[in-house]
Design goal:
The chain has 490 residues and is α+β, with helices and mostly antiparallel strands. The chain has a 6-stranded antiparallel β-sheet. It has a 3-stranded antiparallel β-sheet with strand order 7-8-9. The longest helix is centred in the C-terminal third of the chain and has 30 residues. The N terminus and C terminus are likely disordered.
């Protein structure tokens, strides 16, 4: 069934195909559970970009939707359930309002209520003992989480479920049992309050103090959980009667035999643990759901969830097959159209801070390198090429060669170098010869070819016009350079 059946649900079979009803972003389909206060629909949440999800939607019956007290109870259920975050409690996903109607959106669980599973058992058949204890331990886990829940400021909410029964225990095909329906739960800060003399819950599972209208605590939920386990172990109802008055009198009497006296195959220690949980006096019960849970775990062998799920599949095979048919129809008939790539939103990935710093550094380096390259190219274009003559030097005539140095100077230089004075260095002998060589007049230098691609008019010599170009010659020495033939002598 759905993830949350109304507290007095009779778990009806899914009816014929129903017309879908759209409320906001939720679409409601077949009724999968119904009770005196509300009905539960199989629904579908529609999101953007083709997203969808199956949900269970709980709606107040139309004739009660206009009653402020029922609406307040509805909102209380949503608020309390949202504060209990535990795998063994069905999650409330949303509270929505559409067309002046309030409805609860819960997770959809594939499974059946415990009361429905009990009805589908064969004549004289009982839930296997180990599986029964495992299911109730799951419920006690969820109950303890609800009892310990706090509000937004961390203050205890003091939640008491007050309606723990097989109708409000959902057993999934995943083997996990979950507690549902906090509609009549007692808690601090509720929008609705129980009127004097009003009793909320099911008579056959109420603790005696609850029936008497006294203050209830978490030990009232321990009592209800004990009644549920008593019935699972024995395969029969604990409180029976033809009228409500008989049910109340039997519960208040406290004359309830322990389970092993009804079903002889129940271990006595386990039976006595259950008997303590259903003690008429709250002080004689387990103080918390966790204490009851620990006692049960110490008395039975653990069972894995896979075994419990397989038992649910076998027991409710027909109901589950009908439910899957409905789910398949809903999912195939309402498949969202595929979004074309051009219509799908483009997700822009924001770079990490470290990536931003790296990209910034690379950008600065790129700018510096580009500026340096541009400066170098600009300066190279304004500078004379390697073969250009110095400004102010006269061009050499074609075919002329550099004159030989005077013999006198050559002999003097040779004498100075070959016989240097003791205190003189080689540089001292070179200086006079270089000076005499630079003092001698130089003949005109031969013509040189100047590349057209790099030379500019401003860089060409401003002396006599350039003679006819014949053949490239070696560059002429500058007036400040030492002649090569003079250096060759060293």
């Amino acid at each position: 069934m759905s993830s949350a059946a109304p507290h007095d649900s009779t778990n009806p079979r899914p009816g014929p195909e129903a017309v879908a009803l759209t409320l906001g972003r939720y679409t409601l389909y077949d009724v999968i559970a119904e009770g005196g206060m509300a009905s539960v629909h199989l629904g579908r949440l529609r999101g953007s970009v083709g997203f969808s999800r199956l949900v269970a939607v709980k709606r107040i019956h139309p004739h009660l939707a206009r009653e402020p007290d029922f609406v307040a109870m509805f909102l209380d259920e949503a608020r309390l359930a949202s504060r209990v975050r535990h795998p063994n409690v069905v999650s409330v996903l949303d509270v929505a309002v559409a067309s002046s109607e309030v409805f609860l959106v819960m997770e959809y669980i594939v499974g059946e209520s415990l009361s429905s599973l009990q009805k589908q058992l064969g004549q004289g058949e009982r839930v296997p003992l180990a599986i029964a204890v495992h299911m109730l331990c799951d419920v006690l886990h969820g109950l303890h989480a609800a009892h310990e829940a706090t509000d937004e400021r961390g203050e205890p909410l003091g939640i008491v479920h007050r309606d723990v029964s097989p109708h409000n225990i959902l057993v999934g095909t995943d083997g996990v049992s979950r507690l549902v329906d906090f509609g009549v739960a007692k808690a601090a800060g509720r929008l609705s309050a129980t009127r004097a003399g009003e009793v909320k819950g099911k008579l056959g599972y109420m603790a005696p103090e609850q029936l008497r209208g006294e203050r209830v605590t978490r030990m009232a939920d321990v009592y209800s959980a004990g009644v549920t386990l008593w019935e699972l172990l024995t395969g029969r109802r604990m409180i029976v009667g033809d009228s409500e008055a008989e049910l109340v009198l039997q519960s208040l009497s406290g004359n309830i035999p322990p389970p092993h006296q009804v079903a002889t195959d129940v271990p006595e220690r386990l039976s006595l643990a259950v008997a303590r949980a259903i003690a008429p006096n709250p002080r004689d019960r387990y103080p918390t759901a966790l204490a009851f849970l620990e006692q049960l775990e110490s008395l039975t062998e653990p069972v894995n969830a896979r075994r419990v799920g397989a038992w649910v599949e076998r027991t409710a095979a027909q109901r589950l097959a009908e439910r899957r048919t409905i789910v398949t129809r809903v999912e195939t008939e309402t498949l969202p159209r595929s979004v074309p790539p051009s219509a799908a939103p483009t997700l822009k990935r924001e770079p990490a801070p470290s990536q931003k710093r790296s990209l910034g550094a690379l950008g600065v380096i790129a700018v510096v390198v580009a500026a340096a390259v541009w400066t170098w190219l600009h300066s190279a274009s304004r500078t004379s090429p390697p073969g250009a003559s110095a400004v102010g030097s006269a061009p050499l005539a074609a075919g002329s060669a550099a004159p030989a140095l005077p013999e006198a100077g050559r002999s003097a230089d040779a004498a100075n170098i070959s016989q240097p004075p003791p205190s003189a260095s080689i540089g001292a002998g070179v200086a006079p010869a270089a000076a005499s060589a630079m003092a001698a007049p130089l003949p005109p230098a031969p013509e040189r070819l100047i590349p057209r691609t790099t030379a500019r008019p401003s860089s060409l010599p401003s002396a006599a016009p350039t003679p006819a170009r014949t053949a490239p010659v070696a560059p002429a020495p500058s007036t400040r350079q030492v002649p090569d033939d003079l250096l060759g002598r060293f």
